[in-house]
Model the fold of this input.
Amino acid sequence: MVVVLSKKSPSAAEKDLNSIRKDRDLSFFDLVSVDQVSIEDLALLYEVARRFRDYKTYKFSFNKGSSQVNAFFEPSTRTSSSFDLAAKQLSMDTAGVAGNSSVSKGESYLDTIETIDAYNVKTIVIRSKESGVPEMLARHTQAAIINAGDGWHEHPTQALLDVLTMLDHFSSRGGSASGGQTKNLDGKVVMIVGDITHSRVFGSLVRLLRQLKAQIRTASPLTLIPTEVERFGVKHYTDVNEALIGADVVYALRVQSERGANGYIPSLREYSKMFGISRKRLDLAKKNAILMHPGPVIRDIDVHSALAAVDPQSQILQQVENGMAVRKALLWLMCDRIDGKTKEFKRK
Amino acid sequence: MSTLLIKGGRVVDPKNGIDAVRDVFVKDGKVAAVAEHITEKTDKTVDAKGLVVTPGLIDIHVHFREPGREDKETLESGSQAALAGGITSVVTMPNTNPVADNQSVIEFILKRAQELDLIHIYPSGSITKGEKGTMLSEINELKNSGAIAITDDGSDVQNEGVLKRAMEYAKTIGILLMSHCETKDLTEEGAMHEGWISTKLGLPGIPASSEDLAVYKNILLAEETGARVHLQHNSTAGAIREIRAARARGAKNITAEVSVQHFALTDEECLGYNTNAKMYPPLRSQEHIDAVIRGIQDDTVDCFTTDHAPHIESDKIKPFQDAAFGFVGLETSFAVIHTYLVKKNLVELTKGIEKMTVAPARIIGVDRGHLSVGADADIAIFDTEKEWVVDEKKFFSKGKNSPFIGKKLIGKALYTIVDGKVKYDNGAIVTK
Done:
């Protein structure tokens, strides 16, 4: 027997969001790489995310009846909690599987995820320590797979929230000639410093920044930069001071000790002296340049304490707020498709 | 007394300089005549008109997993896969369980091969006990029990002192030492070729230098010791360059192979985290492929192999970094050579056949790979025009993983004959 659930009449807030959405859908079913996100997708996501941001923690009923499993096979603080809160603020039911899951008992990722998929959940948010796991699993589930960070590969929602932060910053400063929202980062210099090789944040950010025509610079010791990185369209600097000159955005990545990155530099002390973002260094960038960091910040190593959260140039807490809004927009648009289309998949 | 006549095929027998339409007459398991219009009455006649008749192919680098991992492959399933590819002789690698570091494993393989009576199996033994790279195996015992060569394929001897003594000892006994050529300190956790594709996929890379350095080390020690050293599965421009330089210096004791995937496919096969494309050495980038092909053309590369390495499905349905290295190649190797080298006019068919017959036979020191009168009648017959799409469900091998799955290849074995007996006939293994 099929039970038809009648929708409660939408609230004013929901009507407002619907009027922003204008019956548009995303072009993708899963989000495993930012390469899947078209310019139209980006516009839709950001228009909706900005409005969600205005409503703060308001509980929408958009995704009522849909469930989400957050499968974080590697530790996470802000990503897992914001995905969970975002789902709940859309009235979804959520469950989490984590470090003590069956995967740690030797069950394969595929068997674990197919089990979860059989609960008929709408979305499965996955973080894995190996690259490519979300992409592999997405081929075998009816649920939409959202990559919340895979190995050294990508962390798409991080790049989406970072770019929203950048666009908003440049718009608020009258960056757009038309007076509306800035649509791309043409001419903006984004300088990314830190452990590039082991950074999935970099993997997504560089792809998205390139699509938005930003000028991308990287700075790190040569031990922390992957082979042929210039093919992403970046210019690499071994001297961070040089890389900072003329930068509009200073993006610091953590030196990720848990990935054995410590073997790539003699000491955090030496790294901090050579590449850490201090007040003096930040002053080399453009006058109104912003400082960003995906977190967790290793204070006084990646970024000096005085700059981390409190400096007016720091956007680190703005990034966190935008993270909630972007994830909410994504979950609504992925779970509640106007066109009713479903993804193609095959069980293993 | 049994006789067989193969009529009207294009006989390609590089050792004897034959590339012409000929009949091949086989009597009592031996080649009795290769000539035009043989009219002898025979028990069986194979019409080979429009087909290519070659000596049975020889693959000196395969993993048959028995003893120990019969779920992945057995001597029987591996032999059947070989027959389906026109291959009549193989050298099995010693990384079985237990490792072939003692005569009982060698004797087991030889006994089983005899019972099966499908192809000629030449087992190799390990250089070091358990392939651990520290203590030498009892190499003389291995040789006496029938090991054709020694190798630590799959792990390699990392310690140069141990490798040098192994070469000196191998020379003492007069056995071929084959080297896998990998520097583990440079490979680290690498899962694929280090380059743009590994950067895009966020996967740890295996730099070309991991292989280059090991090849160079092996060449230096081979030159110093004078041992017979064969370099396995070369895949880099650096490896080819160093082998070529050693030959130019006059080194005659060093031979080299290329596994056929390493001139056919690039690291782009790994896109989408395709674990079927995960192997060691990894699929390399185009510049390495170009260098390998030049090495084949100027004979820096002596022979072709498959490095046939079957795995069960659950070893491959894994995150790329955790998936097993290796794939099955016996049933596609001739077609790969024909499609990617001969059809592209990069290498002549005769040279391709030479590197799959007489050249590998010479390297391991066996009198095979030719159709001289009196030779064992190991013969393969190919339809070199046959186009087919690789379908893993049709593999005889227990391994179902190949980066060639779904690709269109040109050329297929129709008949495979071992010691004068047709063992493979148009897609089916012939059982007694």
About this structure: Chain A touches chain B at residues 108-110, 128, 130-133, 135-136, 150-154, 200, 203, 226-229, 231-232, 348 (CB under 8 Å). Strands of chain A lie at 67-72, 93-97, 123-128, 144-150, 189-193, 215-219, 234-237, 249-252, 290-292. The longest strand of chain A covers residues 144-150.
